[in-house]
Design brief:
The protein has 127 residues and is of the alpha+beta class. The chain is built from one helix and four strands, in the order αββββ.
């Protein structure tokens, strides 16, 4: 069958070419990967904030406990392990005399992240 002059030689395509579809998929996949990386960064930051809050709260609790303890605190070092929120925390308390005051510096570390620490200071009158 032969076309006469009524058949166009170069008629435009009515869809997307394979190249256009592949470029669109590449762009969408890059955007999806960027969103996944953003979510991972958010989760990492949230976990670090949770660990920091737990350390800070426990350091404050230990400082308050030392400050309100009715016994006579002795200058020197003490330490131990406490469990809070299912997490194990190691703590160290250093008490020194400064004139008529006893000053305690309490350092709390999570045992699964020992490079991160929180500190609290408490002051009491020396007996």
């Amino acid at each position: 069958m032969m076309c006469s002059t009524a058949c166009p030689r170069n008629r435009p395509a009515n869809g997307f070419s394979l190249l256009e579809v592949m470029v669109a998929l590449a762009v969408f996949s890059m955007a999806a990967l960027a969103l996944l990386r953003l979510e991972a960064a958010g989760l990492t930051g949230s976990t670090a904030l949770d660990r920091r809050l737990l350390r800070d709260v426990e350091a404050g609790n230990l400082a308050t406990q030392w400050r309100t303890d009715p016994g006579t605190p002795a200058p020197g070092m003490a330490g131990g392990i406490v469990v809070n929120g299912g997490r194990r925390l190691g703590w160290q308390r250093v008490v020194r005399r400064e004139g008529s005051l006893l000053v305690a510096t309490i350092t709390v570390r999570l045992l699964d992240a020992p490079n991160e620490a929180a500190q609290a200071r408490a002051v009491r009158l020396a007996p």
